Amino acid sequence: MHFIEHHFVSLEKRMKQLKAVLLSFVLGGAIGMWLGVNIGREVPLYSNPFNTKSLNQKIKDVTGETLEKGGHALEKTGQDLQDKLKH
User: Fold this and answer.
1) 59 in the Ramachandran plot: left (φ > 0), alpha (ψ -120 to 50) or beta?
2) Nearest CA to 34 among 51, 22, 20, 19?
3) What is the pLDDT of residues 11-58, one digit of tens each?
4) Contact of 4 with 11, CB cutoff 8 Å
5) Residue 50 carries which DSSP code?
6) Contact present, 35 and 45 (Cβ < 8 Å)
């Protein structure tokens, strides 16, 4: 009888350990996915991964970047022309 009681105690400990391991995997996977999605979207790590930019915001971002690049190119071209006129 003592052997059977000892066996059940051991089984209960193993089940608790198994639950702890499974819970750790689930929580680790969820946190890993959260951080991975944010890294992939190039946003701050702790921001909401389900939050998406609106179409208007995406257009504003792309337009702003394009205008900035165009401005730099125009400025460089102007500098090159000034350099050519000086020589």
Assistant:
1) alpha
2) 51
3) 888 999 999 999 999 999 999 999 999 898 888 888 888 887 777 777
4) no
5) T
6) yes
How far is the CA of 73 from the CAs of 53, 79, 81, in angstroms? 28, 10, 12
Instruction: Write the CB contacts of 44 (distance below 8 Å, at least 6 apart in sequence).
Output: 38
Q: CA-to-CA distance for 7 and 73, rounded, in angstroms?
A: 77
Band of residue 5 on the pLDDT scale cut at 50, 70, 90? low
Contact 45, 38 (CB under 8 A): yes
Read off the pLDDT band of 2 (50, 70, 90).
low
Between the CA of residue 56 and those of 10, 27, 53, 60, what are the distances in Å? Answer: 60, 35, 8, 6
Strands (E) in 1-87, as ranges, are none
Residues in the chain: 87
Report the distance separating Cα 41 and Cα 87, nearest Å.
48
Q: Which residues contact 41 (CB under 8 A, 6 or more apart)?
A: 49
